[in-house]
Amino acid sequence: MHYLDHAATTPVPEAVADRMVEVLTGQFGNPSAQYPMGREAAALVENCRAAIAAILRCKANSLVFTSCGTESNNWAIRSALWQGRHIGKHIITTAVEHSAVLEPLKALSQEGYEVTYLKPDSRGNITAQQVFDALREDTALVSVMLVNNETGCVFPVEEIARGLRERKSRALLHCDAVQGFLKVPCAPADWGVDLMSFSAHKIGGPKGIGALYVNPALKNLRPLLFGGGQERGLRSGTEATAQIAGFARAVELRMDHLSEKLGRTYYIKAYCRTKLLTIPGMEEVSDGTAPHILCMSLPGYPSANIVTDLGEQGICISAGSACHKGKASHVITAMGLPKRTAAGVIRISFGPETTHEDIDALYEALKSHQANRFPML
Ligand code: PLP
């Protein structure tokens, strides 16, 4: 098998799985329980929180565990708007956010909010100036992702945060950093971002655990889930101790020689790009500079056929985001690519484990797909 879909999810290293089993079987106490096993579980959660926060250079108590990136995004958006309810009902976002941002915003637009969707250029880029130009007195929320999951484009979140401060905007800034964490610089507190979303399964952690960074200056943040008052009352629900331990272990493993791992990933991406561009007609679709995502197109060859054909040969890539399940990608549509190019877009995404053999197998499979299929006109 050649797994080239690390932006969809990542393999879980054995050390992460082992740590989770250890917690599931040996340290299964409820962190709210008042006896030693409960206190031990609570300490475990706090140690994991502190370890992840240290990497983000933020205070441990500004990080709240959630069930996934989707929950973090939904909560961040709803709570920011509640917090800014006296400011107004205008929201700025990009047309290329993940559906975990776009769908809650769609629901909000049915509740009277007005959403401005910034369009990317034809290479997938968004500028900070676009945000500033769209800013209004009644803008309560700006939500811009750090790395686009389909194009690998890195958006200028730090510059946006600085610009909002300089303009004395009252809008809160949320950033979906699910694809950016441990791939590109990411420091919410240093940057002055108010809310930032994370997910463990994009960095070798388990599925079903995420986190939200919350600027400590935000008082009275409204929870999304009400109940037992866990996570300092911000996110009720018994803490997923094994998942949290797996998340922290995955972060620790990634952090070990991280710059070497990222350097290798950049190198593998460059190798893949150069090799695939020798296939007649192959185009690079975006300027994505994230190390782990390469967005290409074979115009005339529908991506759904490519993905299925390659999948049967054990090569896993994706046609745009795996979350779209075959629907036309809103990201590629927003970039305004010619129809034939848009229809042929494939996303290849890499991890520290990706090898030259994986890329060589992909290259051969794409060449044989091209040789054996009639192109669409
Ligand atoms: N945001 C981005 C940019 C993503 O790529 C994803 C997952 O693909 C999510 C959010 C959703 O994260 P989760 O799968 O943890 O809900």
Account of the 3D structure:
The protein has about 375 residues and is an alpha/beta fold. It has helices at about 15-25, 35-55, 70-85, 100-110, 130-135, 155-165, 190, 240-255, 260-275, 305-310, 330-335, 340-345, 355-370, and strands spanning about 1-5, 65, 90-95, 115-120, 140-145, 170-175, 195-200, 210-215, 285, 295, 315, 345-350. The longest helix is centred in the first third of the chain and has 21 residues, at about 35-55. The two termini are about 30 Å apart. The model has no long low-confidence stretch (mean pLDDT about 95). Bound molecules: pyridoxal-5'-phosphate. The site of pyridoxal-5'-phosphate has 14 residues, from helix 3.
Give a brief rundown of this model.
The chain is 40% helix and 13% strand. The chain is α/β, with parallel strands linked by helices.
Descriptors for this entry?
377 residues, alpha/beta, Aspartate Aminotransferase, domain 2, Aspartate Aminotransferase, domain 1, 2 domains, seven-stranded mixed beta sheet, three-stranded antiparallel beta sheet, binds pyridoxal-5'-phosphate
Name the shape in a single word.
globular
Order of helices and strands: EHHEHEHEHEHEHEEHHEEHEHHEH
Instruction: Give the uncertain stretches in residue-range form.
Output: none
Oligomer: single chain
Bound molecules: pyridoxal-5'-phosphate
**Main sheet?**
7 strands, mixed
According to DSSP, the number of beta strands is: 12
From the alpha-carbon coordinates, what is the Rg to the nearest angstrom? 21 Å
Number of helical segments? 13
Question: Architecture of the largest domain in CATH?
Answer: 3-Layer(aba) Sandwich
Percentage of β-strand residues: 5-15%
Helical content, roughly?
40-55%
**Tally of domains:** 2
* Mean pLDDT value: 96
Global structural class? alpha/beta
